[in-house]
Design a protein that fits this description.
The chain has 179 residues and is α+β, with helices and mostly antiparallel strands. It has two domains: 79 residues, Outer Surface Protein A, domain 3; 82 residues, Outer Surface Protein A, domain 3 (Alpha-Beta Complex), CATH 3.90.930. The protein contains three helices and 13 strands; from the N terminus they run H-E-E-E-E-E-E-H-E-E-E-E-E-E-H-E. The strands form four sheets. It has a four-stranded antiparallel sheet. Strands 1-6-5 form a three-stranded antiparallel sheet. Strands 2-3-4 form a three-stranded antiparallel sheet, covered by helices on one side. A hairpin with a 2-residue loop joins strand 2 and strand 3. The chain is elongated, with a radius of gyration of 21 Å. The N and C termini lie far apart (62 Å).
Length: 179
């Protein structure tokens, strides 16, 4: 049995959950998310809680139970509160700007990097070096933040690059002089 899968999901009053054939739809004030549900999972919706139960009591169904409980909980939290990721640009000349539906990054390359912003994600840039991403879909948000970060991951010698807000980069001493 999954420890995470056993926990009930608290559903706020402003979130509506509907279940169709093989899919779950969660609607809230920040959007609507859909997730397909396998046949081995059963959902019990009570007053303000949702419980994910396996149909069979096997090890594999326990794993699936924990996975889908976490996915559904992320959906409920996302449509009611939104998820937020902050990226910091550190380096001389590193800048970010939003132009329409694209984010333009100047990261020390000979050309600016332009990335298309997904519809579900909203971006704001503060002081040219701080990018704030927020969305109701945690998976899409994390993927887009990782895509931005992959253009210049932080390097250990000077600490230059794109890092998450609370990320700690282990610094290295670098080359020692000849003696």
């Amino acid at each position: 049995m999954s420890r995470i899968g056993k926990l009930p999901i608290n559903v706020p009053s402003d979130v509506k959950i509907t279940q169709d054939a093989g899919s779950l739809i969660v609607k809230g004030k920040f959007g609507e998310l859909t997730q397909s549900i396998p046949d081995s999972i059963d959902l019990q919706h009570e007053a303000e809680t949702l419980i994910v139960c396996p149909k069979a009591n096997t090890k594999a169904s326990g794993r699936v139970q924990g996975l889908y409980r976490a996915l559904i909980n992320n959906m409920v939290v996302g449509v009611s509160e939104k998820f937020k990721i902050t990226l910091l640009l550190q380096g001389v000349g590193y800048r970010a700007a939003v132009n329409g539906k694209k984010i333009v990054l100047n990261l020390g390359y000979s050309h600016p990097v332009e990335l298309e912003i997904p519809e579900i994600i909203s971006i704001s840039v503060v002081k040219n070096t701080t990018i704030i991403l927020d969305s109701c879909n945690k998976e899409e948000l994390g993927l887009f933040a990782a895509t931005i970060r992959s253009w210049r991951p932080p390097e250990p010698y000077k600490g230059k690059g794109i890092r998450y807000e609370n990320e700690i980069v282990q610094r290295k001493a670098g080359k020692s002089g000849k003696k």
